[in-house]
Amino acid sequence: MAAVFEALDLYLDRQIEAVPGYFGQVEAIAIDAVGRWQVEQGIKGNLAEIGVHHGKLFFILALLRQAGERALAIDLFEDDGLNTGIHAGRDRAFFDNRTKLGIALDESEVWKVDSTTITPEAMRERIGMLRMISVDGGHDYRTVSSDLRLADAVLADDGVTVIHDFFGIGWPDVSVAAIHVLTEARERLQPFLITPYKLFVARPAAAARYRAMLPGNPRLGKAALAERTMFDAPITVMTLGRREVLKRSLRRKLGLLPKRL
Ligand SMILES: C[S@@+](CC[C@H](N)C(=O)[O-])C[C@H]1O[C@@H](n2cnc3c(N)ncnc32)[C@H](O)[C@@H]1O
Predict the structure, then answer these.
(1) DSSP strand pairing (233-240 vs 223-230)
(2) From the CA of 84, how far away is ligand 1's center (Å)?
């Protein structure tokens, strides 16, 4: 039976803009395309995010769940007062948004914890092996390297780790930590896709298959793809064309994007 993504379509088309978060349209399109392609290919596993904030990305993962799959939201869920304006209220915004969006989550799918204290064994016990994990928690060297090693320990053979802010000029230690972990795990982890805010990584055999599916993926029709190298291996760089970016800013100016849930 074909997978049904009605709630995900609704979220991506009409609701996501109302959830404050730290990535753009191109990342949403890429995560959606990779996640749905996994389902079409029969790739099974759970989905998790370290660093959930108000849930903008996590809700995509939750809505990608298929029968028998679970999601896991890991965060401190504490308002540290540094996130002001639309980003305030980390202690409650995720829970409020989940209710407003009507996304059902089991109690075991939300974990209020410092990610650096989670062992691979505890993670496996809680969620099992993952087909997708987004790493976007603390942005300091120690936390990023700890989170990436944890992600490596629970990544399924066909799974994807999405690393946030690898190219962000505001977060140099994210890049340094990621380069160190990716170098030490060279045999197991290979980047295959770059978007402005994120780096997508998979096991080497799977990375080749993910790269191969990108150009023909109908969900990426509006994106521009370029071939480059990273760690001396081929990688795809994905951006959104100028026309798409302008269309979105026009919709915002005309007040056509949702302002709040
Ligand atoms: C950049 S925000 C995440 C943005 C989110 N992924 C999105 O899609 O909008 C970083 C999050 O990491 C969380 N965080 C920071 N350090 C953490 C830690 N040690 N353990 C768990 N969560 C942590 C913060 O509470 C914050 O919600």
Answers:
(1) antiparallel
(2) 15
